[in-house]
Amino acid sequence: MPPLDEFARIRAWTQDRQPKETFELAGVSLGIGDDAAVVNGAPGMQWLLAVDTMVERVHFLEETMGDADVGYKALAANVSDIAAMGGVPKHALVSVSAPPAWNAERIGRLYDGLYACADKYGIAVIGGDTTSAPAHLVVSVTVIGTVESGRAIARSGAKPGQFVFLTGPTGLSAAGLHGMLAKSDAESDGRSKSNPKLNPVPSRLAQAHRRPSPSVKAGRLLLESGWGASLNDVSDGLASEAWELAEASGALLVLRESALPVSGELASYASEQGKRPLDWVLYGGEDYVLLGTADPRHEEALKARFREEGLPLFVVGEVEEGTPGVVLETPSGARKPLAKGGYNHFPEG
């Protein structure tokens, strides 16, 4: 590929990647190519805006993520934030800071993954920025979504008497990362052929880490039914997100260990590795399922609606009166405070 300047690269990565109808349906008046994008508003609707940044060696590793996977996941993380409000993702702005190792071909593959995610969720990529970087790739994505005025589902709606639910199992992404890192380390020092614990990582676990599936459909169902009282996406770990709900709502969340969903692939892999699946379930992160609460009067109807749509829903606990926080109820009925844990970019100390 001949050398390309900044604007030629932008055209190469973005021109004619999406049909005109995508922009028309998303209300785009002016997209990529000017100083700013112009997007028409919708009567009776509110805009939702979310931004996430992925930094090489912090959020992703070359050993575990393909170039296209990085682009897909960078957008998917933002889509999940829109889903956690019950909204619909519409537009994306993408900023890429590329070091020398990320040449035009590699960035092109990154955009392949990003556009694959955009097309899956009906998102118009309408602009952004590109710069050089000294050592590591940085990708920052802003997603703009819509939600009916006054109806966005916040974290602060959990109240005593409600049940706690998950829209999917957690821990898969962390287990996938563990397995891919172990395999990479073993291959680098020649142990992979002699160690039975280094079998290929189950594809579902690896896929959960590389290309997560934000729960947009579940979020919309919860909003449209009017039964979702509070909502949060599981990005930093189930325990961490439960604490966010508890603190935002001023309530006590009780999670029942026996009710937490554990996928068969996760259970089998954890057994092979001599690990406790519960550790990944509670503290893994990057699963992008939804954690929320709802009134028990709607429990059966909500389960039925999810079944009709082919979506999972797991009741995993209750909201109670008490000091805001999270406790874990063991199978024996004993309760213990649940540490926040999960991923934290700037841990105290």
UniProtKB/TrEMBL annotation:
Tagged with keyword DNA damage: no
This protein's pathway: Cofactor biosynthesis; thiamine diphosphate biosynthesis; thiamine diphosphate from thiamine phosphate: step 1/1
Keywords tagged on the record: ATP-binding, Kinase, Magnesium, Metal-binding, Nucleotide-binding, Thiamine biosynthesis, Transferase
Residue sites binding Mg(2+) 2 per the record: D52, D81
Residues at which Mg(2+) 5 binds: D236
Protein task: Catalyzes the ATP-dependent phosphorylation of thiamine-monophosphate (TMP) to form thiamine-pyrophosphate (TPP), the active form of vitamin B1.
Protein name: Thiamine-monophosphate kinase
Organism: Cohnella suwonensis
Lineage, uppermost ranks: Bacteria, Bacillati, Bacillota, Bacilli, Bacillales
